[in-house]
């Protein structure tokens, strides 16, 4: 999963408009290429002849089905992306096929005019996006508005946040539109015996009340049917652990909730035990931020997701595939695992030409400890003696998975705390893949 360079192409179209076409609508067709994430359209109009009256040509665009936007003569350019667009234009997917620039030839000089349109296509690019999967607002027991949450996440340089207020979905209909932060709809399904996040859908359930495990299974079934990804939250918390049966339908577990504390350490150990049994369980984290606090802060911890598009589907699918790293803050440090073309969350096929895993770590500090784990336990520990990056190699020929951790001494903290934890890279055995969906 090596970082790819952003790819762009530009197409230019010219159209001469005769005076006789005044007051008519004109289409300039173009092909939307596959895998485009964003387009930037600009145009200019050159009037011909000595007519002092300049041409007035309005601007808009359509896709294969509908008009996606119209700005008349008010704008010279616009942008459309999957989540945001220039006012007057609709964000969303840019489906490959025939599109068209729309013009209204409002005023055309006697000698006509020429319109020049430039379309810049920005293609989907694999990269790491970072954000917070567990936040609260005034829509439940938090003090932050959604706008304040988004502004804080923007200031941290993050890309996404999940809005997970308790047992409500009103936040999913009130999210701010004028932000660069991808707002992932969510609900924290909150019961007396455990909490879980339903991510990716605005209304994952109609009624949160439960009286037993059968009701919990039903809520999970409905959320899943509606398309939600499901994460069990702070499973080993002292105050609100997961006390229901673990034999429920879920995608991941929040092993890191808020500042690194003992209950996170217990969740980490529990997760490692699941991995040892062959369960490919995705680990995530979340700040669980509610209000200004000296310790619980936005994107601490921060989840990084390897994806090719900044959309709800892109982020959640990346997480579902295990393409995720958790760091104590949006500033890192950071770690990746690579075996040939395979990376974090991937399975290296049996018989692959090589088993050497390259472990790359960035933004380390002197005194950090790098730990590599497999199903056999701690495989290797390396002390860092200077700031910067470190590259390690590990022969993974006889193991089924490998994951990395970085531990650091933070200020006056008692002992070392987690700074980075990755999901594993997996290795297929001769007998095939063992990937359980539920607890036995």
Automatic annotation (TrEMBL):
Residues 131-193 form the Polymerase/histidinol phosphatase N-terminal domain. Gene3D superfamilies: Metal-dependent hydrolases (3.20.20.140). It comes from the Bacteria. SMART domains: POLIIIAc. GO terms for molecular function: 5'-3' DNA exonuclease activity; 5'-3' RNA exonuclease activity. InterPro entries: PHP_domain, Pol/His_phosphatase_N, Pol/histidinol_Pase-like. PANTHER family: EXONUCLEASE, POLYMERASE_HISTIDINOL PHOSPHATASE N-TERMINAL DOMAIN-CONTAINING PROTEIN. This is Phosphoesterase. It comes from Paenibacillus lautus. The lineage of its organism: Bacteria, Bacillati, Bacillota, Bacilli, Bacillales.
């Amino acid at each position: 999963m090596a970082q790819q360079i952003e790819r762009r192409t530009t197409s230019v179209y010219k159209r001469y408009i005769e005076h006789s076409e005044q007051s008519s609508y004109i289409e300039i067709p173009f092909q939307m290429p596959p895998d485009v994430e964003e387009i930037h359209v600009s145009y200019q109009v050159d009037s011909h002849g000595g007519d002092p009256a300049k041409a007035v040509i309005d601007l808009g665009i359509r896709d294969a089905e509908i008009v996606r936007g119209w700005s008349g003569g008010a704008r010279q350019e616009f942008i459309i992306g999957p989540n945001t667009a220039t006012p007057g234009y609709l964000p969303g997917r840019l489906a490959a096929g025939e599109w068209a620039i729309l013009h209204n030839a409002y005023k055309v000089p006697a000698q006509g005019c020429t319109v020049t349109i430039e379309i810049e296509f920005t293609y989907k690019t694999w990269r790491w996006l970072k954000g917070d999967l567990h936040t609260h607002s005034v829509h439940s027991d938090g003090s932050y508005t959604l706008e304040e949450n988004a502004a804080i996440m923007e200031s941290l340089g993050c890309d996404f946040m999940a809005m997970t207020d308790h047992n409500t979905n009103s936040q999913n209909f009130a999210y701010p539109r004028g932000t660069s932060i991808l707002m992932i709809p969510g609900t924290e399904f909150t019961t007396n015996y455990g909490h879980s996040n339903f991510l990716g859908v605005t209304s994952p359930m109609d009624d949160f009340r439960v009286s037993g495990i059968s009701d919990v299974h039903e809520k999970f079934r409905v959320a899943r049917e509606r398309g939600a990804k499901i994460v069990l939250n702070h499973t080993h918390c002292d105050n609100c652990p997961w006390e229901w049966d673990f034999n429920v339908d879920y995608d991941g577990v929040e092993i890191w909730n808020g500042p690194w504390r003992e209950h996170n350490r217990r969740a980490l150990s529990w997760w490692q035990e699941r991995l040892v049994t062959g369960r490919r369980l995705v680990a995530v984290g979340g700040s669980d931020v509610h209000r200004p606090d000296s310790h619980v802060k936005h994107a601490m911890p921060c989840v990084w997701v390897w994806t090719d598009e900044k959309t709800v589907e892109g982020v959640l699918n990346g997480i579902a595939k295990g393409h995720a790293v958790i760091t104590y803050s949006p500033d890192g440090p950071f770690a990746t695992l690579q075996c040939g073309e395979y990376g974090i969350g991937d399975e290296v096929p049996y018989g692959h030409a090589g088993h050497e895993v390259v472990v790359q770590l960035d933004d380390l500090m002197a005194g950090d400890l790098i730990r590599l784990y497999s199903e056999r336990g701690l495989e290797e520990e390396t002390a860092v003696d200077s700031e910067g990056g470190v590259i390690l190699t590990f022969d993974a020929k006889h193991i089924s998975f490998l994951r990395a951790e970085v531990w650091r001494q933070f200020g006056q903290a008692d002992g070392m705390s987690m700074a980075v934890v990755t999901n594993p890279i997996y290795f297929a055995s001769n007998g095939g893949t063992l990937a359980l969906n539920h607890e036995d």
